[in-house]
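ok new one. same drill as before - structure tokens go in, u give me an amino acid for every spot. 119 of them this time. try not to just spam alanines like last time pls lmao
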């Protein structure tokens, strides 16, 4: 069964960096829309970044210039200049059957990895 497994979360001070990794067990996922989402305490899950079949990336406004999504053997999210408001559970996701216009789309989820940013 195909799976998405995140790692790399942790606690960091404001201004620090983390790189999240998602181990993807199926080429089917890698050949579809992929992305990262996050859910802050008491809030709904929201999109952070996406990457399509051709490698085109998209970011929500608060991630632009600070976060970088990439894919190779794994899906990565490099996060720089972290802020306390970046705290939350981060999820790797794939949207099978779609190859572009990926931001915010997902029908397969990992279990999440916690990111905590202290001020």
């Amino acid at each position: 069964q195909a799976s998405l497994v995140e790692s790399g979360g942790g606690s960091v001070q404001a201004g620090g960096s983390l790189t999240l990794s998602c181990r993807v067990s199926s080429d089917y996922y890698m050949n579809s829309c992929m992305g990262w989402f996050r859910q802050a305490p008491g809030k709904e899950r929201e999109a952070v970044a996406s990457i399509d079949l051709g490698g085109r990336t998209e970011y929500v406004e608060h991630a632009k210039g600070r976060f970088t999504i990439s894919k190779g053997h794994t899906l990565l999210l490099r996060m720089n200049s972290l802020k306390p408001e970046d705290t939350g559970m981060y999820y790797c996701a794939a949207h099978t059957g779609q190859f572009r216009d990926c931001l915010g789309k997902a029908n397969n989820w990992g279990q999440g990895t916690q990111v905590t940013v202290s001020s």
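The longest strand covers residues 88-95. and btw The CA atoms of residues 37 and 48 lie 5 Å apart.
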